[in-house]
Amino acid sequence: MDFILICAGIALFLMMLPIMYRIVVGPTAIDRIVAVNVIGTKTAVLLIIIGALFHNVAMFVDFAIAYAALNFLGSLAAARYFNRTRPAYGQVPQGGRDLDG
Amino acid sequence: MGELLNIVSIILILSGLVFFLGASIGILRFPDFYTRMHAAGKGDTLSTILIMSGMAIQVIGDFEGSSVLVAIKILAIAVLIMLTSPTSTHLLMKAGFDDGIIPVSKDKKTKINDLGGPFLKDSLSNESVAKKKTATRKRVKK
């Protein structure tokens, strides 16, 4: 079973790499926030798998709960921040209208 | 019994990995902010729930006294993510729509205002007032 858990963890990490690419490249700021949100959720899963590998899930599950809750809070704050104060492209959006004015 | 739980948990974890592969490829390859958001929201939530359920079954298979509490905690994380991930996806999508991110289209002429515009109340009302003014001016000129 340890072999399958190690394979699952490595596969999770390898599938995080395209999302890392989206964080680096992503044309808008909200793209990057979505990618960070996905990686944060998967990190909570990865923490559980690491805990099962160390035969100490009872400790790691608390880390995972805290990580998932903080991840949700961070993406919520970023969404509220980008909703009104700052356009996603870093300038006046191309819809033809200044959102602040 | 232990073998059966093992097999069920392995199947759940592997199916979760398949769904996460779909989400990852979708985030990498889709052409648009909204389509990438679609891939991220659904695939991420479902794969997380599946892998968490598999790990909970894996933990509860040990049949120790404290493992039931740990399994309940893992399922609580799954429920938490099932509640919070669509919420944050919805809020980020709304933020992007209000910021005027242009959706992909075949003729590349669709603006955000063609879809009903941003949800901001005051700017929408200002725009509608301006439209009415220009319409009345045109009528007066005619």
Cα(first) to Cα(last) distance of chain A is 60 Å
- Poorly predicted runs of chain B are 121-125
Q: Globular, elongated, flat, extended or rod-shaped: what is the shape of chain A?
A: flat
Secondary structure tally, helices of chain B: 4
The whole-angstrom Rg of chain A is 18 Å
**Greatest chain-chain interface?**
A-B, 54 and 56 residues
Oligomer: heterodimer
Kindly report the average pLDDT value of chain B: 80
Report the order of strands and helices of chain A: HHH
Structural class of chain A: mainly alpha
Number of discrete helical segments of chain A: 3
Helix content of chain B: over 70%
- Give the DSSP E fraction of chain B (strand runs of 2 or more residues): under 5%
Tell me the major beta sheet of chain A. Answer: none
In words, what does this structure look like?
The complex is a heterodimer of chains A (101) and B (142). Chain A is mainly alpha-helical. Chain A has one domain. Helix content of chain A is 76%, strand content 0%. Chain A has helices at residues 2-25, 29-53, 57-84. In chain A, helix 1 runs antiparallel to helix 2. The longest helix of chain A is centred in the last third of the chain and has 28 residues, at 57-84. Chain A is flat, with a radius of gyration of 18 Å. Mean pLDDT of chain A is 83; it is low at 91-101. Chain B is mainly α and 142 residues long. Chain B has 2 domains: 2-107, no CATH class; 111-142, no CATH class. Helix content of chain B is 77%, strand content 0%. Chain B contains 4 helices and no strands. In chain B, helix 1 runs antiparallel to helix 2 and helix 2 packs antiparallel against helix 3. Mean pLDDT of chain B is 80; it is low at 121-125. At the A-B interface, helix 1, helix 2 and helix 3 of A face helix 1, helix 2 and helix 3 of B.
